[in-house]
Amino acid sequence: MPDYMFIYHGGKKPDTPEEGEKVMGQWNDWYASMGAALKHGGGPAGMSKTVSKGGVANDGGANPVSGFTLVAAKDQDAACEIAKGCPMVMDGSGSVEVAQLIEM
Known about the structure:
Blueprint: E1 3-10, H1 17-34, E2 38-44, E3 50-52, E4 55-57, E5 65-72, H2 76-83, H3 87-91, E6 94-100
Antiparallel strand pairs: 1-5, 1-6, 2-5, 3-4
């Protein structure tokens, strides 16, 4: 079964410790619902820098990465179905890119 990257964009940092606990509970519930499909829970990302031939941009680009997860799924459509359960997708605060890891 191929592996897929879930690359997160958006979301927001919880305003209170209580909200943080609630949000983490939602993520943990979603991870638990994946069962063996969850390969690596990943985590949130800090501000990224974009490195190119022209230098280093410090702004994270047009749509900065906010985190990642790795999952196994029978195909990309199945991985997208899993991604629909992401708490950021469910509450409308973010989006998930789904890309297959290609073995070389």
